[in-house]
Inverse folding.
């Protein structure tokens, strides 16, 4: 058994097709449940990497996280709300710099941020975050130019 240590985190790496579902010529091709491919071997994450679905094969760290989490630059899975703010419900499971789904009452901009329409548009009840235009005004007026 070989141990890799990265910043306060250790992951057990086993050799000789241990924890493999499919092994060919001494190399693992498919892992048992709860294990993930890391090069030719199957690894099981401990503690902070428990939310990791797919590990990087060329460097240590997580490449894809469970839903609601995204890999940070150091390869750890962080909750979307901690990275993109409390209004972000979902973010990409692979490394991302954007939120992909916002809480009700906020809209997603094309830059991947969650905003309140009223913060950017006076008297706006509903807006489009992609075009940054008001769609419905609170005062009953028509947002002909995208503003109320």
């Amino acid at each position: 058994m070989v141990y890799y240590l990265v910043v306060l985190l250790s992951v057990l790496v086993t050799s000789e097709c241990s924890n493999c579902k499919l092994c060919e010529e001494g190399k693992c091709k498919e892992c048992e449940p709860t294990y993930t491919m890391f090069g030719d071997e199957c690894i099981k994450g401990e503690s902070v990497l428990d939310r990791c679905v797919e590990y990087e094969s060329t460097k240590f760290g997580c490449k894809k996280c469970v839903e609601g989490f995204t890999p940070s630059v150091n390869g750890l899975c962080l909750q979307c709300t901690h990275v993109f703010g409390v209004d972000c419900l979902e973010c990409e499971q692979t490394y991302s710099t954007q939120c992909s789904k916002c809480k009700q009452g906020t809209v997603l901009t094309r830059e991947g941020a969650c905003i309140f329409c009223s913060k950017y548009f006076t008297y706006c009840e509903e807006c489009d975050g992609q075009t940054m235009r008001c769609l419905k005004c609170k005062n009953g007026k028509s947002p002909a130019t995208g503003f109320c």
